Amino acid sequence: MASATGAPSSYLLGHAEAEVDRLLLQGRLYNDHTERALRLAGLAPGMRVLDVGCGPGDVSIVASRLVGPSGSVTGVDATPEILEFARTRAADSGLSTISFVRATIPDVPLAGQVDAVIGRLILMHLPDPVAALRRLATSVRPGGVIVFHEFDISSAHSAPELPLFGLVRDLIVRSFRGAGLPTECGSSLYSLFQRAGLPAPRLTLGAPMGGADDVDVFAFAVGVWRLMFPVAQRLGLVTDEVSDVDGLLPRLRTEAASADAVVTLPALISAWTTTSSG
């Protein structure tokens, strides 16, 4: 995606096969938290929804089920390949009320104002998220809903603290920061909404948790490290302890099993507000 000013986004991870697999896993882990927030925000049958930065379509599919056959969802992304994949997924799910459009944020179609604009893990990749929010808000009818979901990446933790898991988390955080990306965008949503001229949002958070037997939780951490690995290498952060990415998953699970530990993945913070009714 691109910012509201037209500058390219800083989405470093691309949409290679490994990244698409990670996004699908991310959806399995976070879709329930996303759905709960969308319900709290007021998505309901019959609403017209714009999903910005839709990627493989997880949030569009969640929203489509909430607005039902009398509503509609338009997913927007800048990458044609990921949009085609999203179309296939929606068709396979029997959801005919979803459409997908290729566009950057400056080109998002605003005609025919929608009832809600939503987005998950997109603002953190934009050079000017405030300007993007301000522009996207103009697509929402008076009294409509604006909902965005973002990570606090550094909030991932384990109980008890696991040295290897903690190292991977810290290196991921340092890699994001070294690349110029915010790692606490979720906690910034309250400020971002207000700086964009929107009413102060309500907030909630959710985070997947699991022990050594929950492979998906550890696979997600490894998947993020795998995608950030080239960045970490350029920044000189990679140590021998984490250089074998393929061997990292069993090591993390063994560490957790030995300590009978529970791991909590990054919190997904959701913020929502309604536009002025005029």
Describe the protein in words:
This protein is of the alpha/beta class and 278 residues long. It has eight helices and ten strands. The strands form two sheets. It has a seven-stranded mixed sheet, sandwiched between helices. β1, α2 and β2 form a beta-alpha-beta unit. The longest helix is centred in the N-terminal third of the chain and has 25 residues. It is globular, with a radius of gyration of 19 Å. The N terminus is likely disordered.
Topology:
Layout (H helix, E strand, L loop, with lengths): L16 H25 L6 E5 L5 H10 L4 E6 L2 H13 L5 E5 L11 E7 L8 H9 L2 E13 L4 E3 L3 H16 L6 H11 L6 E5 L2 E2 L4 H20 L13 H12 L2 E3 L2 E8 L4
Helix pairs in contact: 1-2, 1-7, 5-7, 7-8
What's this entry about, in short?
This protein is of the alpha/beta class and 278 residues long. The chain is 42% helix and 21% strand.
- Spatial order of the strands forming the largest sheet: 3-2-1-4-5-10-7
What general form does the structure show?
globular
Indicate the low-confidence ranges by residue numbers: 1-14
Output the structural class: alpha/beta
Helical amount: 40-55%
Distance between the termini: 30 Å
List keywords for this structure.
single chain; 278 residues; alpha/beta; seven-stranded mixed beta sheet; three-stranded antiparallel beta sheet; 8 helices; 42% helix; globular
